[in-house]
Amino acid sequence: MNCLPEMSPDPIVDLFSKRRSSESSFSVFSDGHVSFSLSRPSSDADFNRFLEGLCRTDSVGPDDKSEDVRHAATEASPERRRDAPSFESGQGRVPRHPDSASSQDVIAVPLQQWIEEEAGNTDTAHQDPSSLMKIHKASMIRKITIGFGIAKLLQMLCLEEAISGHSLAQLESMCSSDNFVLELSNSGTCEPGWELEGIVMVAPFASLRIHKTSSSSPNCESGSEISGRDVVAEVICPFDSNFDRFAAGDSSDVDIALCYLLGVLLHFLFAGSTSQIPRKNDIVAFGTEEPLSKKKSSHLFTRTDAKSLTEKRSSDVMPFLRDTSFSQAVSIFADGDEPEVGRNNEAGRKAPRTPLIDLGYPFSISQLVMNLIDCGLGLFRPDDSYPSLAVAISDMQMLLQEPSRFIWNHYNMPDHRNLFKNDVKLYGRNQEIISLTNAFCRVSSDGRSESIFVGGFSGCGKTRLVQSIFDSVNIVGGYAVTRKFDEMNSSSPLNVVLSAFNELCILVAQRSSQEYLISLRKTLVGSIGSNVKHLTSVLPNVVDLLPSNVGLMVSNTQVRMNFDGLCFAVQRLMRAISSPLHPVLLFLDDLQWADNLSLKLVQYVLSDVRGYNCILFVGGFRENEIEQDHVLLQLFNALSMPDNKSSMFHLDGIGSNEVNSMISDSLGVFPRLCRGLSDVVFRKTNGNPFFTLEFLRSLIARGLIQYSLRNMCWTWNLSQISEENITDNVLQLLTKKINILRETDQTALKVASCFGSSISSAVVQKLSSTLQYSSLQTTLDEMGVKEGFVDFDGTSYRFVHDKVREAAYGLIADKEQYHLDIGMALQLTGNDEVISTIQQITRSSPSLIKNDLQRVSIADLGYEAGTIAMCCYDFTAAHSYFQTAVSFLPSDSWRVHYNLTLKCHFQLAKAAYSCGWLHESKQVCDEIIERGKSLEDTLETYSLVVSLSCARKDLLLAFETCIEVLNLLGEVMPADMIDANELLSITTKTKALFQSYSNEDLLDMHKEECSRNVAIMEFFDQLTIVSFYLKPRVCQYYSLRWASFCITNRVVCKYTPGAFVSFASVLSQQGLGEDMRLACRIGKLGMIMVNRDGKAIDQIPGVYEVYFTWVGILTEPIQAQVALCQHAHDIGMQSGNLFKAGLLLGTIVARSIYTGTNLQDLKRDIEIHLKSAKQHSQQLLHSHLSIEYEVVTRLIGDEKVERVSDLESDSPVLDILKFTLEMMASFYLGHAERVHHKSKLWEGLIDCHKWKAPLGSIYVAFFSGLSSFRLYTRGKLKNQRHVEILAKSLAILVKASEFSEWNYKNKALLLKAAYLTVTGKLVEAETEFNAAICASRASKFVHEEGLACELAALHHEKRGNKALALDLLRQAESCYKMWGSHVKEIHVARHLASIQV
Predict the structure, then answer these.
(1) CA-to-CA distance for 202 and 165, rounded, in angstroms?
(2) CA-CA distance, 131 to 923, in Å (whole number)?
(3) Spatial separation of the C-alpha atoms in residues 25 and 238, rounded to whole Å
(4) SS3 assignment, position 105
(5) What are the CB-based long-range contacts (under 8 Å, 24+) for 1001-1007?
(6) Which of these ranges, 288-302, 1038-1052, 1078-1092, has the smallest mean pLDDT?
(7) How many Cα atoms sit within 13 Å of 1206 on the Cβ side?
(8) Residue whose C-alpha is closest to residue 576's, from 537, 539, 618
(9) What does the radius of gyration of the chain's CA atoms come to, in whole angstroms?
(10) What is the pLDDT of residues 1240-1269, one digit of tens each?
């Protein structure tokens, strides 16, 4: 084998000496997963050390030429010769090349010697079977790595044209095993044997280093399979050659020649070191006490067998071309003499070198080597021979990267019916993966939610695409959750979304540190608050994120959320859970089967107006199954707003190259060998990934693709496949596949398909207990899972794909009857599976059941299922179940089954209301009112009518309904104007009633048990709220009648606190006298009642709104009122009472303006609230906030805002609010005349509607008095009317400060200072100005502190004390800056500049 050219070591040394004298150069090449660099040694010392390391072995080669090379190395460093190690001893390792990144020592061993020694390393006479197999698998990986490295060296020489002029004899010598030396290390790898670190070609000199970029050495103790490796090959070679150049030939000819020579070398590499690799029957014996072929096993992998095999191979000369040197073969062809074997090429194929597969090697390795050797057949090369070294290198690279795909399957006895599965690799979706990854990175960095919608046909890989980034999400600390909607479970799509959030809670609890959980629990309790209990009923896993005693806080509450409250609670939950450190990927698939309610919840969470949620939402859908008005397109449009980033892309089929790669993976063959098959499949499937795999399975089922047990590989006849008439519809393909099954097998799949994409094992067991479906579970286990139709995860049987379920479901002829049969069978098994039973019956028709008793039984079942769904807040499902119950009721049910009919209809109306289907709810309510036998039977329905009327913004209908019901209940109510004397009379009587009881007596009243009285209280509550906005002139009368009824009948229920505060609101309008003191007393009692009764928690928003609007303004610090109202607002949102929560929000913003909250912050908050109000169609709240937004922007100094001052309002309440706030803005902006104008308008409204709020009266008096002071001091003619207005205003503020010094003392002092100034008492005025400044600062009214400083500065400036005036103006400027009023800051700055000291 030694055919190296005659050379001395001196030319090699001279060659490198000459090259290192020039400048170093570095080139980088890339080839898929393999990269390599071209460089050279940079100094004599470096080169000598490298060459010394290469040759320091006891024996490099059997000839003198190798000895000359070794001699040159030892001459270069003779002092190290005595330390030369032997490969067998493994001692005296030498250092790597100095450029190496690794500092580990290696030994250099000639390839010829390594092949011989490798046989010795695999002497396994005393090895157990498992260790034996691991040794030989590791050896195979090393041999492939060596072949890969040698191929890279040969390719580099071709690319550099260093051998383009070589003779064929020189090429053969260059590719001899004697021309290569291996660098090895024993790096502690788990794999048996030494680790390859590099390869050296002696002549022409070139070197290659091996770097593994992924572990090929798994944990030795685990016994796991040897994994693949990505190899980085770093090549060091010369740029010219010392060989004599012959006539240069075509570079492709050289490439082909090297392919052939590489094949010969690889055949020797694999076949020359072992007699036989274990075959399949021997593998079966591994791990057993007695091998199946004991005689063979006794001498497998011995060194003796390796030697005998080599001798046999040498004596058995291969026929002509396959045993002829490449130079001889080419010479024959060049002479034009066609060899005999060329005319009989088949004979040459029948007697080749011994195929490696006959020696026990996998088919892939045998095929690779034989296709390389086939390159030596010249013009007679078969089509599957290699066209270039690059293709061969690519195949070897795949062997290294994925041995489980190409090598280990040879030993794993694959089922000849099943394809090789690659659940990790994704084909042809790189750009889409990048888009998803970039979106997630944006969410993580920006902290703002995004949404991506992925459309495409079924089977195009939407699910696999999104799931491909789950690992990346988890690595960065994010949470990835996924759910899919189901066509067969369309009655409960909301539950799909809720289950995703429920799973998210588990992930957070499992993956969070204890410190993080403690912090999260505090955040959750604060944000979710009293709604914890209701949220845990929807998302049970929230309990894992909460303190253990949190349930005790609300254990007595019976308040239920509606859908809006559910959305609010989930939004707050996601605010707490998601963050830039822990972003959430929420993937919902098959959105074409979602409904409006489920997507509304998604929209609510993603459209968090404060932008606190950090979520990437990905929605998958089938584009061919949606219409233009589908709810998912509405969701996309809703999320495509400036504040929300939303995008959509379409998935087509993958390309032909990707299909080829997929088929290569599935069949475990090199991609180049299945190109023809993949082209046929691509034409049939258009690149649909799922269809592609199913098409392959159909070819296997029909025998067009078969598994060769001899070669351990898949084979096919391409021409036969092309001629077959196979459908190009995947559904038809699957239908045919199911149709050939046994009847019992088809029935099992049909039954499972009726439950959607999965059926729980509990339902399967229930059905299996019936005679009709007794074989269901056995069939699913033995056939469904085995044949690949379903998977079993321990709790449910899930179809492997929706198309499989659709194919099975499509085989059902009468679907309604089929569903009904399943439902009735489940019903007979008991009540454990109520939901599953009613879901089946829901998909049938009531006309199929003629027996009234059965229909009533189903109606009862539907009612029970709907009640369960309502308790879980799954309102869509509840509506579906109640609708089923109503539809199955007999025609005479109102007469014969009245109670069942009544409750089914009412719950249906309630569920429709909860879903937002107000028109349907109203229709059902009308039917109940018409058919109800008594008022008591319809009271709940009337109350629901009032609620849905308010939701529909039909306040007049709500008002009329309340009046009608109260009249029917015996409380006759006028619908219009009330005589003043009558109002005064009932006011006096009600006051006397309350005054006759002490606080203790009122708080200790016993709870009312009479449902009629409770109903009257409920309708009074609704009436006062509606009339306040619709007919405020009679609202006082209704409040008085409500309070009088409550005390007279001593009714204690959850509506009692509302009666108390409503009565207090009436008293507060009588002025700041004794009536106001009684109002404060009664109002506080109402607040105590509502806060102590957990069952009245849903009344908190309404009670707080009334109390702090009319009474609390005189009893509580105004800043505390803002915090308390915010708490009540959150409760209103949690309970879904958007109307009352909206009223509170308007109060909160108005109070924040009065407290001097930073205007910039307040402006941002109002903008957020405006978006929310628009999102929830809260027109009244939107108008309220628009007024406040205009005032705030004017106070800041931004006049570029839409003016709403001149717009007419339907509500006098809003008009009064508008005038009050505009008076404040006008005064601060210096328009005193406008303040007086607005004051007159305000008084006109009050006189018209006969009521006025204390807060409005106080602030109108405050700004009117200051405006009069400003007009009086500026005018040349002193108008005494201004002094009178100022005195009147001062009296009102002094009286108010008696109730609350915190809120009003500073204002009273400022008005007093102004009054003393206009009355000429200037010294006393200075004292009051200072007191007003101090009082404002103490009460934290920064804007009013600035105002007091500004007015005091004007006072001192007029008196000539300019230094003090400047100091006070600077204080005012600072205060206005803190307030955020740029316009006032600029105004004071100008004033400062005008003062000359």
Answers:
(1) 18
(2) 77
(3) 11
(4) coil
(5) 1002/1085, 1003/1085, 1003/1088, 1003/1089, 1005/1050, 1005/1052, 1005/1056, 1006/1050, 1006/1052, 1007/1052, 1007/1053
(6) 288-302
(7) 2
(8) 539
(9) 45
(10) 888 887 777 666 667 788 899 999 999 999
**949: CB partners within 8 A, 6+ apart:** 955, 957, 958, 961
Contacts of the segment 1268-1273: beta carbons below 8 A, 24+ positions apart: 1268/1232, 1268/1236, 1269/1311, 1269/1314, 1269/1315, 1269/1317, 1269/1318, 1270/1232, 1271/1232, 1271/1233, 1271/1236, 1272/1318, 1273/1317, 1273/1318, 1273/1354
**Nearest CA to 1234 among 1222, 1244, 1216?**
1222
CA distance 1108 to 1064: 11
Q: Which residue has the tokens 């108390």?
A: 1060
pLDDT at 195: 80
Query: Comparing 126-135, 910-919, 959-968, which segment has the lowest mean pLDDT?
Result: 126-135
Counting Cβ atoms within 10 Å, is residue 743 exposed (0-12), middle (13-18) or buried (19+)? exposed
Q: What is the mean pLDDT of the chain?
A: 79
Whether the bond between 85 and the residue before it is cis, its omega within 30 degrees of 0, is no
Residue 210 near residue 230 (C-beta atoms within 8 A): no
1352: which 2 tokens? 């005091």
What per-residue confidence (pLDDT) applies to 1008?
Answer: 64
Length of the chain: 1397
Say if CB 29 and CB 38 are below 8 A apart. Answer: yes
Pairing relation of β-strands 479-484 and 584-589?
Answer: parallel
In this structure, how many other beta carbons lie within 10 angstroms of the beta carbon of residue 510?
A: 8
1211: enclosing H helix or E strand: none
What is the spatial distance between Cα 1378 and Cα 1158, in angstroms, rounded to a whole number? 7
Residues 48 and 55 sit within 8 Å (Cβ to Cβ): no
Cβ atoms < 10 Å from Cβ of 879: 27
Q: How high is the pLDDT of residue 871?
A: 83
Both tokens assigned to 1153: 């303006």
Mean per-residue pLDDT, 441-460: 90
The confidence score (pLDDT) of residue 839 equals: 87
Residue 728 CB coordination number (10 Å): 13
Q: Give the mean pLDDT of 524-553.
A: 72
